[in-house]
Amino acid sequence: MAEATTALITGGAGLIGSHIVDEALARGWNVRVLDSLEPQTHAEGKPGWIRDEVEFIHGDVRNQDDWDRALAGVDVVFHEAAYGGYMPEIAKFIHVNSYGTALMLESIRNNDLPIRKLVVASSQAVYNEGAYTCDGHGHFYGKTRPVSQLEQGDYLMHCPICGEPSRPVPTDEAAPMGGENVYAISKADQERLAISFGRATGLPVTALRYSCTYGPRQSLFNPYTGVIAIFCTRLMNDLPPVVYEDGKQSRDLVFVEDVARANMLVATDARSDGQVMNVGTGNAAAIGDLARLLAEKLGKEIEPDIPGEYRPGEMRALISDTTKISELGFEARTGLEEGIDRYLDWIREQGDVGEYFTEAARRLRERQVVKQARSGTTV
Question: Is the model's pTM score more than 0.90?
Fold first, then answer.
């Protein structure tokens, strides 16, 4: 009888990583988790969903010894650990995401480890912008909107030829990379380091560019990442969700179990080797509408607060073109309303829910991660 596959899942206590753990255990794999239990996300320490059969290593991706220990005897690696969101740190993003990934690759190379597959969590934040179409001039890839435009309250994406407002369309993997916030830069580093290492060494590597992922186990303590979780913690404390820009910016929101399935799919399908692939639903929701939907489902008659603020370097719209991964058989199974219902069922089981966004928002304004537009919003 062949030995079971052994998988290492970094960040395996987190939202996506813990669901990959569940998928791997369901396949009969041996599972090891490396997680630092970042206090911003895991304020209460090791979460209860880490099952007894999982080998848990409390370690840091910035520590070479932790990597050497975690990677020993492993067949498949899911590198999910990352510092994420719109936090004001700069060096920590690069240290955790870029440097941590480089250490992993050095450990694989220096110890001549026979890893069979490496799956790296990238993000659609690596794109400059989404794809658009202009009625007069057709398809184009958007460029990052300049601060001089945003500060006037003009949040739209304009055709580069005629200047008219344009409509978002699904963004494929050929869209230019080059996100202009530190998180996006660090995720692009992770992706490029891993893919280039695979090409140079022959290690099969796949990078998955996730859409906005949500679902049970998303941290209720981190006020910097996870738009649905942030909005819910505000609403459950009878406070309005704070929506940036004009509320009409949109995102592809994908349920965490679908993302976990995508990881297992590419880990076991050689057709994904050397590829970068979007993971999403192919649909998008306006963020203002999302805030209203959550309020309705929570029974709160609270309209979102839209104060005319913006985050420099943020995308206007992102809809995933999932053609590449669908050719392997992937399809998102969970629609937005069903996914939100399942998330809300989980959040109601968590007892009292604190509200941390107010203080975080003040800090972000002080450090100019969030800015106030000078004019009214464009409608």
Answer: yes
